[in-house]
Amino acid sequence: MPPAVPPIVQRFRAREVQRLVTSVVVHRHRANDPKLHMKDVDVAKVRMGTPLHNPFLPRPLFDRSSTSDSTGEADSASQADNASQAVKQRKKWATPKYSLRRQADLVKAARASGTLHLLPPGPKLTVAELEEAKQEAREKARSAKVSQLAVKKAIETRRAVQSPAEPVANVEGGLQSGEEMVESVADLAVPSLTLSKLQSLSLNSQKSTGLKRGKWIVRNAHALAKRRGSAQAGYPGIVFHWTGDVPLKASAKKNGLTIYAGRKRMFKGHKWERQLDKRRGKIAVRMRDMRKRIKRFRNVYLKKRVRPLSPAKPRKKETLPF
């Protein structure tokens, strides 16, 4: 049984589908038809391979092809400086739509529910982890399909056992009699189930795997908001083509912790701990010459001390009044 999509992931996928329809269909066709409304857009006609910017990454607000670093050789150094300054001024980036905290919450909920393959890569989710999650999702879907086919075959076999006189069609396309069906029942893993139980099991497996027409299929963009809270609102049938340069993240296999993966040491220590050896050396030098330091300190103001028995010295040199 495939895992249920968490509500936080459902809302994320619904918003991205809405953004895909808005950016691809509406912006493309409103040039020809300015009165085009969102409810008139057919989501089934949207190409799911259309590039869509990754909401976990910053978005460039400039044309990266025209503002490349290689602006060409200038005639003079001043022209080259002016061109480089103009390029730097044009390179502005928009912040990601989702903050790092919201990205961490999304990845945490998706990892706990086994739906990590529904999210795009980003700072909190590496490309390697995403590929591994996609492979696991494919294997789970394949096993669910195999189990559903086994249940379907068991139902047909049980019906053949109940009516042995009439030959029934085999799953592979041939015909089998009732006696042959009885022999094949012994090879099945569920021979003790009744027909009603098998039918209910098949219905539940179809509901869980979503092989029937899913509830997430939306025929127009106006109904997207009503599908966000449903059980299949994660839109598992829609594949997004995310664009953007995902930052490379250091592997945590060496240290065991992700936050120390790119560092030589896990914790460099407090500042007083790092400077302790140097401080001890200075203290040792001062203690070695401490007697000389005390002697110099006591003799600094020795000549300036007041002597009560000596006559008072005038502050200024005496001068005559005329």
UniProtKB/TrEMBL annotation:
Transmembrane segments: none annotated. It comes from the Eukaryota. It holds the Pfam family Mitoc_mL59. Residues 74-86 have a biased composition (Low complexity). Residues 33-299 form the Large ribosomal subunit protein mL59 domain. Residues 52-95 are annotated as: Disordered. Residues 64-73 have a biased composition (Polar residues). GO terms for molecular function: structural constituent of ribosome. GO terms for cellular component: mitochondrial large ribosomal subunit. This is Large ribosomal subunit protein mL59 domain-containing protein. It comes from Phellinidium pouzarii.
